[in-house]
Amino acid sequence: xxxxxxxxxxxxxxxxDGQGHVNNVSYVHWMQDAALAHSAAQGWPSRRYQECGxxxxxxxxxxxxxxxxxxxxxxxxxTWIKTLQRVSSVRKYEILRVADERPxxxxxxxxxxxxxxxxxxxxxxxxxADAFTIVPxxxxxx
Length: 142
Hints:
Strands 1, 2, 3, 4, 5 and 6 form a six-stranded antiparallel β-sheet that branches. By secondary structure, this protein is an alpha+beta fold. The two termini are 19 Å apart. The protein contains four helices and six strands; from the N terminus they run βααβββββαα. The longest helix has 18 residues, at 24-41. It has a single domain (5-140), classed as Roll (Thiol Ester Dehydrase, Chain A), CATH 3.10.129. Keywords: Hydrolase. This is Acyl-ACP thioesterase. InterPro entries: 4-hydroxybenzoyl-CoA_TE, HotDog_dom_sf. Pfam families: 4HBT_2.
């Protein structure tokens, strides 16, 4: 399985704001969609986390917007795991427009691993950690 997951998206009309380009909140949705799809591809779909009573919650997001995206643009979200620690992980993203390969945004999310019943931090089980490869910044190509 690839260390860097590729997630495709076509910009919808409901993602456009009053300025005629993609609303900044849509980027967070794309990031979450890509993270969920990557996890599922690695054998950890949402259902499996639910069955274990464990899962991820976002602690923080950082997004650097580089260029606007517009309705019908084909978007590629590249995502990978930068760090995986005892109870947290940093996931990186690069969002590109497919037509011209222009970077639209760079982002990262700091995720915390929690027990779903009370949202208390929980050590990341080995079977979860082993499903993902750590990709350092200098190896990501971003």
